[in-house]
Automatic annotation (TrEMBL):
Domain of life: Bacteria
Keywords on record: Membrane, Transmembrane, Transmembrane helix
Protein name, per record: DoxX family protein
Transmembrane segments: 7-23, 43-61, 68-89, 95-116
Species per Swiss-Prot/TrEMBL record: Flaviramulus multivorans
């Protein structure tokens, strides 16, 4: 079971990243609201969606897990900062669901990056 936990974590994070893309790529009203509020509509919404898609795919490829986890940390770290600086914890009466999901995704990505730290070529941890 221990060897399956990293894979399960990768699938969870990839799922979270990829399932939010339907809102970004279909220009859902809530997604437009969020990105307008932070001044990144429409290019930021689409660009961040593309980065999340790439990160989700990279997390599922064994040789690129560390790249996907790093990219996820950057993108989701930015989302967390936007929540704290401009959006607030609760967005459009969601009870903080988006913020909590971002925190969970960030933490799981950090765990994944730690688990795959030996795969980072320039750290020479082997």
């Amino acid at each position: 079971m221990k060897k399956h936990i990293p894979l399960i974590l990768r699938i969870i994070v990839a799922f979270i990243l990829i399932q939010t893309l339907r809102f970004k790529f279909t220009a859902h009203a809530d997604s437009i609201y969020i990105f307008e509020k932070v001044g990144l509509e429409p290019y930021g919404r689409i660009g961040i969606g593309v980065l999340e898609l790439i990160a989700g795919i990279l997390l599922l490829i064994p040789k690129t897990v560390w790249v996907g986890a790093s990219l996820t940390l950057g993108v989701i770290g930015g989302a967390i900062m936007m929540h704290l600086a401009q959006l607030g914890i609760e967005v459009k009466n969601d009870g903080g669901t988006l913020f909590i999901t971002a925190l969970i995704t960030f933490i799981l990505s950090a765990v994944i990056l730690y688990l795959y730290r030996k795969d980072i070529p320039f750290l020479n941890l082997k």
